[in-house]
Amino acid sequence: MADLKQIQLVSDAVGNAVSVIVPIDLWREISSERETASLLSSPNMKRRLLEAMARTDGVSLKQARSQLGMGRGLGCWQETK
User: Fold this and answer.
1) Which stretches of 1-81 are DSSP H helices?
2) Can you give the pLDDT at residue 2?
3) Would you kindly state where each structural domain of the chain is located, as residue ranges?
4) Which residues of the chain have pLDDT under 70?
């Protein structure tokens, strides 16, 4: 977490705090927490997320590409050795 001393308030002409400047790491953390809270606010989405997190089965990217017939020649999806 970012150092809270790095947070800066921006004031208007009469001294009212109207905005805040925060370090990018803190902003990303706040954004991530808000997104998670938003997703978990829907009972259906919460159930789906918890089910996905509990899954232990699955396939690797290489296996999925093979099953989908995607081969090896797809630029950004190419595996590095």
Assistant:
1) 24-40, 43-54, 61-67
2) 60
3) 4-68
4) 1-2, 72-81
